[in-house]
Here is the input.
Amino acid sequence: MLNDSPNSSESLAEECKTLLERASSVLLGKEAQVEKALVCILGGGHLLLEDVPGVGKTTLAKILARVCGFEVTRIQFTNDLLPADITGSAFFNSTSNDFEFRPGPLFGHFVLADELNRATPKTQSALLQAMEERHITVDGKTFELKEPFVVLATQNPFEQVGTFPLPESQIDRFTMGLVLEFPEREFERKILQQGDTTDQIKSIGEGLGGKKLAEIRKAVSKIHLADSLYDYILDLLNYGRKNFSTGHALSPRSGKDLVQTSKTLAWIRGRDFVLPEDVQELLPNIWGHRVGGSRGLQGGMSEIDRLIKEIPLP
Here is the structure.
């Protein structure tokens, strides 16, 4: 079991479990998806939610922000949105007789990029530097973003009218992809009776906050991943690159993301070591959106399921 200092990672893991239970009571019937999403955020990653409108993608984003203790900065992506609408721009201050930078909505802790693929590729690209480097450059000047900085993006299925496919460079910056799907009948009945979830989200509590998030990420870095599991991940990468038509999308970053999320999942479940099953459980979500191409996340997850069957566990 985990054994750090007093206020230790063990107590933090228990706090996360409590927050996870409260979060799952809001987004009914989606315990597994809520846990994976939290694993992504606690590990310092960005999350891509792909599904039809109305299944709870935006609600999940608000829940995650609440669990982590931050407000959501929401950007509604449309086909007429411009990069400067996201990053901010310089304006002329008549008082100081000089140009000043006015930050855009990207300057938040939890940025909800709602319906990201409804914006043009030019506007989508405004996120690239921010997601990778945690700063942006406007008019030759560099501005640091807040820490933690998390992008939670929702994406509509590609076959819907008015969508633009995300470029591979953009997709690869998302650590994890999730599909919520329609709820089962018993849970949908409760959802129909549930009403507005705003008060329920508030009842989750104040959340973790930046200091505890930093402590969690430090604790996750100490989780052990055996050499045999590193070899297993390398075998998976090698097979996917050689046998998938979109295998080139399995970048070294995709391997690092799998390592980081596997460690985070082990930590949140109270272990100081990663199991092979942790890697397999997360693999479709970490690599599915990368290899899905025009089939989307669900198509990519099917490819990864095939990959898991081809490469035996260590």
Observations:
- Residues 53 and 156 are 7 Å apart (CA to CA).
- Residues 223-314 form a domain with the Helicase, Ruva Protein; domain 3 fold (CATH 1.10.8.80).
